[in-house]
Amino acid sequence: MISDVLSDAGDEIRRYMNEMPEVYVHHRQRIKRLLDDMDTLRIQLDTPPSAHEAVEQ
Fold first, then answer.
1. What is the pTM of this model?
2. How many Cβ atoms sit within 10 Å of the Cβ of residue 43?
3. What does each of the 57 residues of the chain score in pLDDT, given as a tens digit?
4. Rg (CA), the chain
5. CB 52: neighbour CB atoms within 10 A?
6. Are 42 and 4 in contact (CB under 8 A)?
7. What is the spatial distance between Cα 43 and Cα 7, in angstroms, rounded to a whole number?
8. Which of 2, 22, 29, 41 is the most buried (most CB within 10 A)?
């Protein structure tokens, strides 16, 4: 599932950023926004359709 791939990728990116915080210093905020977007999409993909309908009403 795409949500699993997003979860795994997010974990790897966060691990990498924690282990080597000096790498990509100039891109840290953009990477953080990317991770936030990945988490949001993962949650949406993991939410059952009936919950989406309740939120839309």
1. 0.80
2. 11
3. 999 999 999 999 999 999 999 999 999 999 999 999 999 999 999 998 886 565 555
4. 14
5. 10
6. no
7. 10
8. 41
Cβ-contact 2, 24 below 8 angstroms: no
| Phi, psi values for residue 23, rounded to 5° | -80, 140
* Angle subtended at Cα 40 by Cα 28 and Cα 17, rounded to the nearest 5 degrees: 25
Please report, in angstroms and rounded to a whole number, the separation of the first and last CA atoms in the chain.
27
Whether the Cβ atoms of residue 43 and residue 54 lie closer than 8 Å to each other: no
Tell me the C-alpha distance between 53 and 17, whole Å.
37
Residue type, 17: M
